[in-house]
Amino acid sequence: MPTALPHYAFTRGAIAVIPLSLACAPWGLLAGSMAIDAQFTPLQAQGLSAIVFAGAAQLVAIGMVKSGASLISIVLTTLLLTSQHLLYGMHMRPTLSALNTRWRMSLGFLLTDEFFALVNHYDRETFNRWYALGVGLTFYIIWNLFTLAGIVLGKSIPGLDQLGLEFSIAATFIALITPVVRDVPTVVCVAVSLLCSVWLSYLHWESAVVVSGVLGMSAGFACKRLGVGQR
Amino acid sequence: MIYLMIVAMGLVVFFNRYVFLEPRLPVRLNRGAREFLGFAVPGMLTAICGPIIFLADHQLNLSPTNPYLLAAICAVALMFWTRSVLITVLSSMALFYLFRWWL
């Protein structure tokens, strides 16, 4: 594959990422329409998808803006919410850090959960930068097109937020969480995080998501360190 | 204010994605930090799902006939059996609307 023609490898990557892009359609629509609903201008709403390009962080940030959270707490939440990318970066370091600056920064910007899911298993010999660019850039374009559709729909259909579309966020996250839950510490992490998030949100804590997430992660980490559930 | 937030978020996300791709960076996360970050996906994503499922429209709903809860349980089962994100999201969305209309 490293010797494959650039446009052929690019097309292969673009085709590979299409199913994952479509699964994110409801989020893209929501990221656009929720931003409009939270009094963002269309340019700001599109800018969020074009510059930040991180679905979960965008939706949470929009929700936090709506509830009047401070800039510091939004940025801190974003930092924690996207911290799994540190692990993706570490994992991709042997292949991506060897590229020149332009390629490294471009592919780094495009390093999403979906990109990682499709590109992580290539090593230095089998990795093709054009394939990776096909995956990342196609996902970026489709994400931004769905955001644009959400901005247009959000303005013309009042009550888009009443359709229960936010369930698609829960459904997609459940689909991402379920395969990861394979040991006792992770079950503890999910249980603590779930209980705390419902409880703290019910008490109207503005930082409910960060605090519950960190409590869940700490509980899981503590269980792992104590050897809970290990034979 | 919003533009400042967008740029700040963009920088933070790019930092997380890029920092370990930088060849001049000599440090590595130690084992403890990596183990802790390994819980980021289940921990953070669950914390976002919780309020969506149990606090729809800011009302606490612990009833077993809560359509969000029923559809969420179906989504876990669907993902467990099919291992497909697309099938799970589409089917559980359909079930969610069915439950909402039915219950």
TrEMBL record, chain A:
The chain crosses the membrane at residues 14-36, 71-90, 131-153, 165-182, 202-223. It is found in: Cell membrane. GO terms for biological process: L-valine transmembrane transport. GO terms for cellular component: plasma membrane. It is a multi-pass membrane protein. Keywords: Cell membrane, Membrane, Transmembrane, Transmembrane helix, Transport. Belongs to the AzlC family. This is Branched-chain amino acid ABC transporter permease. It comes from Pseudomonas libanensis.
Automatic annotation (TrEMBL), chain B:
The keyword Membrane applies. It holds the Pfam family AzlD. The keyword Membrane applies. Keywords: Membrane, Transmembrane, Transmembrane helix. The chain crosses the membrane at residues 37-56, 68-99. This is Branched-chain amino acid ABC transporter. It comes from Pseudomonas libanensis.
